[in-house]
Design goal:
The protein is α/β, with parallel strands linked by helices and 419 residues long. It folds into 3 domains: 11-106, Arc Repressor Mutant, subunit A; 113-224 and 401-414, Nucleotidyltransferase, domain 5 (2-Layer Sandwich), CATH 3.30.420; 234-395, Nucleotidyltransferase, domain 5 (2-Layer Sandwich). It has 13 helices and 14 strands. The chain has helices at residues 22-25, 35-53, 58-65, 69-81, 148-163, 202-210, 219-230, 295-304, 315-323, 327-351, 361-364, 366-380, 398-414; strands spanning 85-87, 104-106, 113-119, 122-128, 134-141, 173-177, 180-182, 187-190, 214-218, 239-244, 248-254, 257-259, 355-360, 390-393. The strands form 4 sheets. Strands 5-4-3-6-9 form a 5-stranded mixed β-sheet, sandwiched between helices. Strands 12-11-10-13-14 form a 5-stranded mixed β-sheet. Strands 1-2 form a two-stranded antiparallel sheet. Helix 2 (35-53) crosses helix 4, helix 7 (219-230) crosses helix 13 (398-414) and helix 10 packs across helix 12 (366-380). The chain is globular.
Length: 419
C-alpha cells in the first residue's frame, strides 16, 4: 500500500507551475505555485524520506524525494548548520571504486521539541526528539468548568516539569488541543466539554510564560501529522485520521499536505449530519455524527440492551465479549461499526481518500472493529473498479501519536514545511 510521491518540479523549474505574471504579459496572468511554496514542499519530502528510511545519502534522498541532488544539498545544508542533521559514518568501501557517500541522520543531540496534549479535564506534556522518541512526560488534571487561573497554574506546572528535563532549550512547543481551534491566531475558539477554555489565546499565553515559539492545532490534525511521520500514514499521499471517544473528530491529508481550511476550521467531522432530525448534540444541532458514534452513545445503548456495567463499556470490551460468545455485545459492536462507517462512507464519496486511520476508542477495538467498519463502508459507497478502501488502526496509542504530531507542528513551522 505504500506509495512513493511523484517527482515535483524544482524551484528553478517553477515556470512550469505558473502562468506569466501581469507585468510580463499584460494579460492578467496569475501565479499558481510560487518557488517558495515548491521549496517548502521539497523540504517536507526530503524530511519525510529521512523519517521513512533512516540514515540516507544525499543521492538516495534526491531519488526518494523526487528532487535533484542540487536541491537536496540546498535543503539539508542549513539543517546541518543548525544542528538538526549530522553526517554519519560512511559505509565500508565495496572495492568497486569511488568514495562511499556519508549518510545523513538526525542529530541525537539536537534540541528537543516541547509537546502538549490538551483535552477536556486533562493535560499531557512531553519532550519529543526529531526522531519521535517521547520522554519527560508529565500529566495534569483540571476542572473543565472551573477557574481559569487554576487551569493556567496546572498547565504551567506540568509544562515546566517537562521542560526541566531538557538538556538544551527546546526549539518550541506544539499543542494538540481538543475543541474548535483557530490555528492562525493560536486561539481555542470553543470546547463544548470544557467551557473554561473558550476564547483562550493559548499560544500567546504559553509563549509569554516560557519564551518559546508556540504552534497550536486541532487534536485530530496532530494525530494525522503523527501518523504521517511516524505511523501508518507514512508514504501515503491521501488519507484521513478518524478519532472517536467522548467526541468525534478527524483530519485530512490530501495530495501530500494537511488540509486545514480557513483558520484551521476544517475537520469538524463530528458535526456533519448523518441522521436528519436525530438526537441533540452538544453543539446545539441535531443528528450530528458525534451523536451516534461516541462513547456516550455507546454506553447508553449498552444500558438499553442490558449489558452489565454499561458505564464502563468501550470498543475493546465489546470485541472481547463478542468473541466470547455474547450475541448482545456482537450486535452492539456491529451497530457501532456501522455508525462509524456512515461518516467514513460520506468522506469516501466526497473525497475518495481510500485510506482511513482509526484513533481513540475505535482504535482500541483493533482489527475486529476495523474489519466490521470496512465491510459497512464498502456496502455504503459506490465502489469503482480496482478501488481498495483501507481501514487501518493506529498502534502507537493516542497520547504518543498526538504528542509526536504536536512536535511535528513545531518542526514544520520552524522549517517552513508544507505537510
Amino acid at each position: 500500500m505504500i506509495q512513493r510521491p511523484a517527482p515535483l518540479a524544482e524551484a528553478d523549474d517553477a515556470v512550469n507551475f505558473r502562468l506569466a505574471a501581469p507585468e510580463e504579459t499584460g494579460t492578467g496572468g496569475v501565479v499558481l505555485v510560487s518557488p517558495s511554496v515548491i521549496g517548502s514542499i521539497n523540504r517536507g519530502r526530503v524530511l519525510q524520506a529521512l523519517y521513512d528510511n533512516g540514515p540516507t545519502s544525499r543521492a538516495d534522498l534526491a531519488r526518494l524525494a523526487g528532487v535533484n541532488r542540487t536541491t537536496v544539498t540546498g535543503i539539508v545544508q542549513p539543517m546541518i548548520e543548525e544542528g538538526l542533521l549530522i553526517e554519519g559514518e560512511a559505509p565500508r568501501s565495496t572495492g568497486l571504486g569511488g568514495k562511499p557517500a556519508r549518510p545523513l541522520v538526525f542529530n541525537p543531540d539536537a534540541p528537543m521539541l516541547g509537546a502538549i496534549l490538551l483535552l477536556p479535564g486533562r493535560i499531557q506534556t512531553a519532550l519529543v526528539s526529531l526522531t519521535g522518541e517521547v520522554t519527560a512526560q508529565a500529566h495534569g488534571r483540571f476542572d473543565p468548568h472551573g477557574d481559569l487561573d487554576a487551569f493556567r497554574a496546572v498547565l504551567f506546572d506540568t509544562m515546566a516539569e517537562t521542560l526541566g528535563g531538557a538538556a538544551r532549550t527546546p526549539f518550541g512547543i506544539g499543542v494538540a488541543a481538543g475543541g474548535m481551534i483557530d490555528s492562525d491566531k493560536g486561539l481555542i475558539v470553543t470546547v463544548a466539554l470544557a467551557p473554561i477554555l473558550d476564547g483562550l489565546p493559548l499560544a500567546a499565553i504559553l509563549k509569554e510564560r516560557f519564551g518559546l515559539p508556540v504552534v497550536i492545532d486541532h487534536h485530530p490534525r496532530a494525530l494525522l501529522v503523527g501518523d504521517r511521520w511516524f505511523g501508518p500514514g507514512r508514504g501515503q499521499q491521501n488519507f484521513a485520521a478518524i478519532y472517536t471517544g467522548e467526541v468525534l473528530g478527524g483530519a485530512f491529508y490530501m495530495d501530500g499536505k494537511v488540509y486545514r481550511g480557513l483558520a484551521g476550521s476544517g475537520g469538524e467531522l463530528g458535526h456533519t449530519i448523518v441522521q436528519f432530525g436525530g438526537a441533540a448534540c452538544n453543539c446545539g444541532k441535531h443528528g450530528c455524527w458525534e451523536t451516534v458514534a461516541t462513547l456516550s452513545w455507546l454506553r447508553r445503548e449498552a444500558a438499553a440492551r442490558g449489558l452489565s456495567d454499561p458505564d464502563t463499556v468501550h470498543a475493546a470490551r465489546l470485541v472481547a465479549e463478542a468473541e466470547g460468545g455474547s450475541a448482545t455485545a456482537a450486535g452492539l459492536l456491529d451497530l457501532y461499526a456501522r455508525n462509524i462507517a456512515i461518516g467514513i462512507a460520506n468522506l469516501q464519496q466526497t473525497l475518495s481518500l481510500n485510506y482511513y486511520i482509526l484513533h481513540g476508542d475505535a482504535a482500541m477495538g483493533g482489527p475486529p472493529l476495523a474489519r466490521r467498519i470496512g465491510e459497512h463502508v464498502e456496502r455504503f459507497v459506490l465502489m469503482r473498479p480496482n478501488q481498495e478502501i483501507v481501514i487501518a488502526v493506529s498502534g502507537n496509542g493516542e497520547g504518543r501519536t498526538a504528542l509526536r504530531g504536536a512536535a511535528g507542528l513545531v518542526v514544520s513551522d520552524r522549517l517552513k514545511l508544507v505537510i
